[in-house]
Write a structure and sequence with these properties.
Largest sheet: 2 strands, antiparallel
Number of strands: 2
Length: 449
């Protein structure tokens, strides 16, 4: 009881690393639980409003847009989190000013280029898009700068240790606004049914609203020293050197997350895309614990590593594995028992085919949780090049695996290919990280060298 009271006091008033970590962790838990529930609710609303084929077209085009938009971010959000945390620890406010300005200009420039290229490509290859897909694609292009800039604002807040506020706009507000808008349109459009292009247009409006609120949060959470600082320092060479591998990492992550939907849309049907998307959304619940922990601990991994606090780093990684692994296994058991009922009750009987890919993806997410915060540790300790090489291996593996498995097993095959790729590259990264960070990350324990 005394320990619980001490922990609660530390959570409320503690100004040290433990107190900050507790508040960030608890807040991240709330945000990520809310985000996961909203993502599932959004999938339910879109599936019910658009039907299997319409939802499949929306999911296919959104996956295409997401992959196309990879260069707009170039790994900048992770770079901003890491470099902001380092610069704040050194009280280098001019460097933070320069970093934020440079990253914003880079995101805007790349977004503009991608919008032009994407619009031209869509016009040229319009015949290869599904019916109504051109309008869906054009509305999707509007999302490119909004999501890129929104992620940068969130990264800046997380780097300043405002972990919860850094997640609210993108993970809570954007999906919440979209759910409200889709429901309003669904019940308000009495003359015709809601289409995939309508849904993508509403997504653009929801993203704009979330971005405006995120920008306002950042303005209000800046330290007074940063507000007073007018000078801007730049380390463009070093930032580019780090941003490029970070961008490759983020890009390959996005590819691995969305290529299953693309493969199904190309080699199978949009209905199978919808089934795979539903299974992915529900299976994401299993990986929520490790995602929460990664966001909460990212700035502290950087601080502990660069300040030479090796034992604290080991303890933090060990704690993340124990908590995330235990919770993921529990959620997987629940989905195994009640998965069919959940899918049929919320999404409808037409989506019952999502159950098998749901089990495959959920089991893969359990394995990932047991492997620990590998990617976050690599990014926050300057070992992003190692992660890039390991993820490249996974990307090379997943493409032929998807082609073979999708053709033979549809959405279940796509799920199996995704899990196989994710596990392979994480095993590779574990081996690569050992010598760089000074300890070995094992599935169930940490063994110090």
């Amino acid at each position: 009881m005394k320990a619980a009271r001490k922990l609660f006091t530390e959570f409320r008033t503690g100004q040290g690393l433990k107190g900050q970590l507790l508040r960030g962790g608890v807040g991240s838990v709330a945000v990520r639980i809310g985000s996961t529930l909203l993502s599932v609710a959004l999938a339910v609303v879109l599936a019910r409003a658009l039907g299997a084929e319409g939802f499949g077209i929306y999911s296919f085009v959104f996956a295409l847009i997401t992959i196309l938009a990879i260069p707009a971010q170039m790994g900048l959000p992770n770079l901003v989190v890491r470099e902001t945390a380092k610069a704040q620890a050194a009280n280098d406010w001019a460097l933070i000013n320069g970093l934020w300005r440079w990253s914003t200009l880079m995101a805007l420039m790349m977004s503009a280029v991608l919008i032009v290229i994407g619009a031209l490509a869509a016009w040229i290859f319009a015949a290869r898009l599904p019916e109504g897909g051109l309008a869906v694609f054009y509305w999707g292009l509007v999302l490119v700068p909004l999501i890129a800039l929104g992620n940068l604002r969130g990264a800046a807040l997380r780097g300043l240790r405002h972990v919860v506020q850094g997640q609210l706009p993108e993970f809570i507000l954007r999906p919440a606004f979209l759910v409200i808008l889709v429901l309003g349109a669904y019940f308000g459009l009495s003359a015709r049914a809601l289409t995939a292009s309508d849904a993508m247009m509403l997504h653009a409006f929801a993203s704009l609203a979330a971005f405006i609120i995120g920008a306002w949060l950042l303005l209000n959470k800046r330290p007074k020293e940063l507000i007073a600082q007018k000078e801007k320092k730049s380390e463009v060479g070093a930032w580019l050197a780090s941003a490029l591998p970070l961008g490759m990492i983020a890009g390959m992550q996005v590819v691995n997350q969305n290529i299953g939907s693309l493969a199904l849309g190309i080699f199978d049907s949009y209905t199978e895309v919808a089934l795979f998307k539903i299974s992915s959304q529900v299976a994401a619940v299993v990986s929520t614990p490790i995602t929460i922990i990664n966001i909460a601990i990212a700035p502290y991994l950087s601080r502990l590593f660069y300040s030479g606090q090796r034992e604290g780093l080991i303890e933090l990684v060990n704690m993340s594995i124990i908590i995330s692994g235990s919770l993921s296994i529990l959620i997987f058991i629940i989905l195994t028992i009640f998965g069919r009922f959940i899918i049929s009750s919320f999404f409808g009987a037409g989506f019952s085919g999502s159950y098998v890919p749901l089990l495959v993806l959920s089991f893969g997410n359990v394995l990932i949780s047991l492997m620990g915060p590998l990617l976050t540790l690599a990014s926050m300790t300057g070992n992003e090049a190692l992660a890039m090489r390991s993820m490249a291996l996974g990307t090379v593996i997943i493409i032929p695996a998807l082609i073979v498995l999708v053709i033979n097993y549809s959405s279940a095959g796509a799920a199996l290919a995704v899990v196989f790729s994710m596990v392979i590259w994480r095993v590779s990264l574990t081996a690569r990280l050992e010598r760089q960070v000074g300890f070995r990350i094992d599935p169930l324990k940490i063994r110090s060298f």
